[in-house]
Structure formats: structure tokens, C-alpha cells
Amino acid sequence: MKYTIGMMLALVVVACKKNNLPEIKAKVITEQTVNDTDDPAIWVNKANPEASIVFGTDKESNGAIYAFDLDGKIIEEKTIKNMQRPNNVDLVYGFPLTDSTSTDIIVFTEREKMQIRMFSVPDMTPLDNGGFPVFTDATGEEQLPMGVALYQNPKTKAVSAIVGRKTGPAKNYLYQYGFSVDSLGTVKAELLRKFGAFSGKKEIEAIAVDPEMGFVYYSDEQHAIRKYHADPAKGDAEISSFGGDKFQEDIEGIAIARYGEKGYIIVSNQQKHSFVIFDRLTNAYVNEVNLGTVETDGCDVTTEALGAKFPNGLMVSMNDNKNFYYHDLGEVLKNN
Predict the structure, then answer these.
(1) Domain end marker among 242, 266, 301
(2) What's the domain range around 223?
(3) Which of 27, 57, 256, 275 has the largest CB neighbor count within 10 A?
(4) What is the pLDDT of residues 175-234, one digit of tens each?
(5) Backbone dihedral region of 297: left (phi > 0), alpha (psi from -120 to 50 degrees) or beta?
(6) Considering only CA atoms, which of 175, 163, 181, 189 is closest in space to residue 103?
(7) Average pLDDT, integer, range 228-242
């Protein structure tokens, strides 16, 4: 959707009417994308944190995975263009290519091609031979991928992608694909399992993995946040379902702030234009904050210091004006 100044003012008025929380001002607002922003992922440059990159999806038939620097400027040479409705994006560090080499990767859904894509970071080389098909036993909207989250087993370092879709059955809504590399260096994706309950109320898009704790969380929109084991070997039974009463309507993006064994789960309260914060260990409600964004879909956090501008970590949130907001994570969590 193209937004006029009048439309954006109207959105701001709606946000103010529905959200009486004090606003935590963004430190940076990114340059605008062409179409419709949706979901971010933060890549931390371990050697030079101030050179870290924020990747953000721009979902349309001529979509892209935009790369932004910490000033919110588009990095053209790192941006992946001409994607067919890229929806959600995630990343992991140290994906093993051989016994002695590894690379950081991003994985994102390409909805109109019914596949997921994999690129190395930061050189942005495709590793997927054009893409990995998903939901191949489904038809119609049940074959259209939306959400994705990566799980890296802390012990084996094996990486898998947990993928959601536009709609699906009451059981086995999510598919999990394991990645491997053959003797020729070709990356392959294999279906590991189908799991995950669905209320049928709207859809499931936002997915996030807590690798240290071994859990995957996803937003069953207008119902609750659901929690499962991320490791297929630990079974497919639902661990818990929580938080539904804390949201005005849609439960959206999920970000996990990890501080050793403690931390927070931060979830977008989309129509209230706010974020609900839960305790990482107990999943109990903690707080709600207003970051100034409108109709937020995806969000991501890192607790690592990213130089002088974000010494307490970074939170990135999609805003419904074709851009993303950057907040100092310490400011977001200061009252918790």
C-alpha cells in the first residue's frame, strides 16, 4: 500500500487513541523501502560491532531483503533484490560448510515461489541453488510460506528452519527442515517433522527460537503464544500456551532478549501499537511499552553492545511506513 501524508497522520491519530503508554523515542528510523516492510533480523559483526547489519524484508512481487547500517541507511551492495514476496527473515552464526569451515547465514521465506532462501553473511552469496521448496504436500494458501525461525542445536551445531504458512490445519501447521552439506559442498534441506497446533482464528506468522533454552515460540494470532521444544528429538507436545489476554487483537512479532539464563520475550501487540513483555523463564507477564511504531509485524533484538550508539543492545521494529525503528534495548527494558 502507498501511504500519503494524510494517511500516515490518520494512522498516528489512531495509535494515540488506542495507546496511552508513554512513548520511548527511537534513536534511528531507517530509510524507506519500496513496498511494505515486515520483519527484521540483526547480524552482529563480531569483529566490529559498529559495522553490524540490520536485514529487513520488503514484501511484494518485486520485493527485497534490505540491508541497513546502524544509522538506518540502506547498504545497496548487501541488499538482495528481485525476490518474490519475501516475508520473514532469521539468521544464525557459524553454519558448518565443511568440517573446518563455516559461515553466518540468513534464511528467509519467498512466498510466491513457495520456498525458503539461504544466503551467506556478510558477502551475500546464495547457498541454496535457487531455493528450497516447502510445504510440497499442501495446496493453495497452505503452501505459501510466511514465518521462519532458525534453530541451531547448541551441542551438534546442526541448523534447521521452522517455517509457518498463510494458513493450515489444526495440527501440524509448522514444518521443520534440517540443513546439511554434501561432499560437493551443496546445501540441502530435508523435512524433519510437522508439528504445532493452530486455533483457526487467523494465521501463524511470527516464530522465534530460544536456542539456549531449546524452545520455539510462535504467535497464533488472536489466540495465544504457543511454546514447543525446538529439537525434534524432544517431541512434538505443546509445552504451554500463554499471553492471549494481554493483546488487543493480533499477536505478532516475537523477539527474545537473552541475558545468560534470564531475559525477556517481547511480542508485538499490533493493533494497540505496543509491545508486551514476558519473563523468559516463567513466561509471566512483565510489562507493556510503546516504541512509537504503528501496526508492527516483525521485531528483533540483540543484547550485545553495538558501539557508542547502542551500548545496551539494539531492538529493531517494523513500522507501517515502509521503514524500521531502532531503539536502545536498555531503554526498552529499563523499567522491568
Answers:
(1) 242
(2) 84-242
(3) 57
(4) 999 999 998 889 999 999 999 999 999 999 999 999 999 999 999 999 999 999 999 999
(5) alpha
(6) 181
(7) 98
Identify whether residues 212 and 293 lie together within a single domain. no
Asked whether residue 71 is domain-assigned, the answer is no
Check residue 222 and report its DSSP letter: T
Give the pLDDT score at 8: 52
Q: Residue 309 corresponds to which cell in the numbers above?
A: 550508539
Residue 21 inside a domain? The answer is yes
Q: Which residue from 199, 200, 181 is spatially nearest to 189, judged by alpha carbons?
A: 181
Check whether residue 135 and residue 276 sit in a common domain: no
Query: Sheet containing 299-302: which strands, arranged edge to edge?
Result: 28-29, 323-328, 314-319, 299-302
Whether residues 14 and 115 fall in one domain: no
The reply to whether the predicted model has a pTM over 0.90 is yes
Q: What is the pLDDT of residues 22-37, one digit of tens each?
A: 999 999 999 999 999 9
Judge whether 156 and 210 are in contact, CB under 8 Å.
no
Instruction: Return the half-sphere exposure (C-beta side, CA atoms, 13 A cut-off) of residue 308.
Output: 0
Which grid cell is 186?
Answer: 551443496
Q: Which of 215, 242, 269 is the last residue of a domain?
A: 242
Dump pLDDT digits (tens) for 116-146: 999 999 999 999 999 999 999 999 999 999 9
Measure the CA–CA gap between 332 and 266, rounded to whole angstroms.
10
In a domain, 64, yes or no: no
